Amino acid sequence: MNSHHPVKVIAVTGGKGGVGKTNVSVNLSLALGEMGRKAVLMDADLGLANVDIMLGLRPKRNISDVLAGECRLTDVMLDVNDNVRIVPASSGTQAMTSLSAHEHAELIYAFNDVADEMDVLIIDTAAGISDSVVSFVRAAQEVLVVVCDEPTSITDAYALIKLLNREYRMTRFRVLANMVYTDTEGRSMFNKLLTVTDRFLDVTLQYVGSIPYDESVRKSVQRQVPVLKAFPKSKAALAYKQLATRVDSWPVQSMPRGHLEFFVEQLVQGV
Known about the structure:
The structure is a single chain. By secondary structure, the protein is an alpha/beta fold. It contains twelve helices and eight strands. It has an eight-stranded mixed sheet, with helices on both faces. Residues 267-271 have low confidence and may be disordered.
């Protein structure tokens, strides 16, 4: 591969379900698209697809078809608008929830074919700390951990960070507080997580802000239209735009970290 086009790869994760990861992934992708960035959103909840549902799309093909060798990655990608495309996952397919390391590698390398067509790749991971979640998080340059104001959210986020740090020596994580009533509440949630990681782990956490609790989000989910489109002036939509501005300022890493990464060939060549 001869491309030197830099691609920013962000895994959106959280350790548990119900924290709003998919909402974050979808609306962040759209907000980056509005800024003129070419964004691709991959639904990495391989057995329980939900990105396409949230967008009201009905894909004819998905990731399982790529892995089966029936089509190329470009054949399954769906346009959301001029700058945003999604890679849909399969739904209700048991085999997709337990891919081998080789199959994960095949999927990750498949993205090299479309590297020149994107600026940002956002990976919406599944809930939990399965091998699949870990594989995709390790393959990303940036890890955005989404937390909400539930004790299990902080506990599960810590468990994920602990696993990635102790087993795979990952040391840098960004944290987003979701569905908060005030930014002070979001900062407090971050501090709870920071207190535990500072005490027991060798990691660096960065607080990237919060998304407010907003009834518009619930209404938009019911409509299968992202809040950024359905209610562009809502508190949540404005917060997503601010988040996108921060994300856009994150540097693209120019050296691989020793993991199996998206676009590793580009990183090795230098961007």
